[in-house]
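Obj.: predict assembly geometry.
Materials: sequence records (below).
Method: joint structure prediction, all chains together.
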Amino acid sequence: MSPFRVICAAFSFCLLALPAWAEIKIKEVVSPGGIVAWLVEDHSIPFAALELRFRGGTSLDQAEKRGATYLMTGLLEEGAGDLSAQEFARELESLAAGFSYDANRDTVSISAQFLTENRDAAVDLLRKTIHEPRFDQDALDRVRAQVLAGLRSDEKDPNEIAGRQFSQIAYGDHPYGSNGEGSIETVSALTRQDMFDAHEAALAADRLFVGAVGDITAEELGALLDTLLGDLPKEGGAIPERAEVTIDGGITIIDYDTPQSVALFGHVGIDLDDPRYFAAFLLNQILGGGSFNSRLMTEVREKRGLTYGIYSYLVPRDLAAVYMGSVASDNSKMAETVEVIQTEWAKLAANGVSAEELADAKTYLTGAYPLRFDGNSRIASILAGMQMDDLPIDYVETRNDKVNAVTLEDVNRVAAEILLPDNLHFVIVGRPEGLQSTN
Amino acid sequence: MIHRITRAAAVIAVTMATQSMLQQTGVSSGIGSFVRPAMADTGQVQLVASDLVTTFQLENGMQVVVIEDHRAPVVQHMVWYRAGSADEPIGESGVAHFLEHLLFKATDNLESGELSATVAANGGRDNAFTSYDYTAYFQRVAADRLGLMMEMESDRMVNIRLTPRDIETEREVILEERNQRTDSEPRALFREQLNAAQFLNHRYGQPIIGWRHEMEELSMEDALSFYDTYYAPNNAILVVSGDVTPDNVRALAEEHYGKIPANVNLPVRERTQEPPQSAARRLTFKDPRVAQPYVQRSYLVPSRQSGAQEEAAALYLLAELLGGGSTSFLTNALQFDQQLAVYTGAFYSGVSLDDTTFNFLVVPGADVSLEAAEAALDETLVRFIEEGVDEQQLERLKLQLRASEIYARDNVDGIANRYGRALTSGLTVEDVQAWPRILQSVTADEIIAAAKKSLRPEVSVTGWMMKEEEVSQ
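Observations (raw structure tokens):
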């Protein structure tokens, strides 16, 4: 018994007293024009962060136009209104503002931070990129070349190869089953008109979620929203149906000449709005949630030295959910690694977790939750994400209670339900010794 | 400041930016936090407030830096040692990083893994990282747990108890880490060779993670020898950021760290230095896993020197002007005007105990040869020096640097890192606080002078990262 355990025990009562987040006061702001945003006002530093999310993302692409949304998003900062790409970049520098644009399977996101002293000018510039992108042919060709360079690199990247294969297995012909950045063929064929079409489909008012944090009042934000977003088209492109996830147990090996194999493994998961989600979240923390002390980390790394790191994660996307994990091991060790993972998966499904493991996971997750709210941009992103996930505005205050309300029986019932050792499929890229594809 | 969707190039750039740090695990550390009320009023962007920062020293020589931010009841506790891979004995490359892993094992008072488990059980996160000039350990946790963190961190400063089994399994872990970060990653292998060619006599030429054949031989004696030599309060810096007061930190630090005696035998930190370099070096690296060839060039240049940071400031601005973003000179020439490249970048790593490197990266377009890309790089550098600095661009850059100090106050843990890196790399608190002002004072002529002085072929290494040519029968 070490002295530190005693200290821990003495401290444990404090955890319950730890404020969820005293400073996070989220207000809903509705602009005069009817645009909704969540705001955390904090006037201590003279800048604000703004996060815009548009649901749909790269899954809006038509199959033959795969990559259009991604390329379009990259081009938003490459010339707008009366400004060429370089004029825009110089203007942004002159304002010392930062705008970034990104697209993933479910979302196009625009993140901005700007100083209070030149906020209006920054918003005008941001507005141009949203409403008046030029999609000049030279910019299109230049950024397309960058995307193609990325796609060629991906073809030789074991992690990318594994990720694509896993998506293909899990989602088939659904947009989730292919790469949102497109293929070399589809991206090479994209035209300027495709960019305008993708822009019209992706950036629309019916799929917009806004978070704002920092040195801005509700009234100022309301006016800003109407200026920035008031002219968006009402409706965007149709979002695809849900994907049907079909993953059978087994191993798929993709031969690749490299000393260390990488593996992705997983099966169907559960959705964010599933009532079992908090139990599953705690369960995953215990299995492979990223601490040094998870079961997978303990068994695969600490006890056997088979890897540098192993993780498991719930992936609840808008249109499908999977439960996945990842690991990299020397080719000579991957077979043992796979065996240990299969064993741990089955053991947890059959026997569940202990009361102590659950208590530790709860203290960790409830204690770590407030640490997420670290900085204006991060909080703005969380606010937009909460709205996309249809969470209530008081969620930040109630979330830890929901974690704490999960019982040992809940977790162990959910473990038996959602961990499917027989369905666990491994995609391995490398030359793992003693392993073969199962079909 | 602008995030661009240029993944291939971005990956290379990110790899370069993070090349000098290895983490204990791949778990994201998520460093970041809140700052206390700003100083600047509206109207003009002002420099960073150094009054957030308090420094003092314990009687045993341990330096303490406190960065206050009372917006949230969170604290980051870090201990930085002035000991990194460049301090390792010859033949034991990787031992600094190996030891960092081993500090998560048992001590006289803690079971193996118990420190991390305790941090987690208190809702916190912990990790550690190793670089050429430092090794650092940190926890991020609720502010009222600071004493517990110090109790555990001070314990492992002097009390580790390793078993032969720890050595065996953890050596396998670091070898897998090398597998993952380096051997599976042609870019990292290329960079390792480039670095080794750059430094003729300095330990910066050896990889932080170590050469595999030396890592395989690392023993308990090697690890403990490094530990006994360097892990002591008079070789450490405590950096605490967040919801704390200097008085509170001082009291806790005296209680936990103050009781550890100084190591009176702490060696002076003198590494073998570079001789004058008088021959440009070239290398070609071929790997079948390379999809995107590129040219990288590095030059041996001075780092930030305590009390004399002007030349380093000029080099920092030079890197930004040449390759710091989409309005930079190289990007303008190679991506917009001549359309030869899909990515260009320039990087200067100024925080370094000894001489450091200035790097260029050019990723050519699909049908452009590396030879043409390199020629365009050289031609553009010559033209930059001839034409001189665009004063408007320099002013925009200085404005952005002033603004970045405002944005930085949104993240005191970032400021904590800034101090930790500087103070383990030969700089003082005063140097850190003077740096933003010195950057603002640099003139266009000083930047050109720094370019002429530093970008000399004889101190350079040029590397071509290439696809393995397929042999046709």
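Conclusions so far: DSSP finds 16 helices and twelve strands in chain B.
To do: check interface contacts against the pulldown list.
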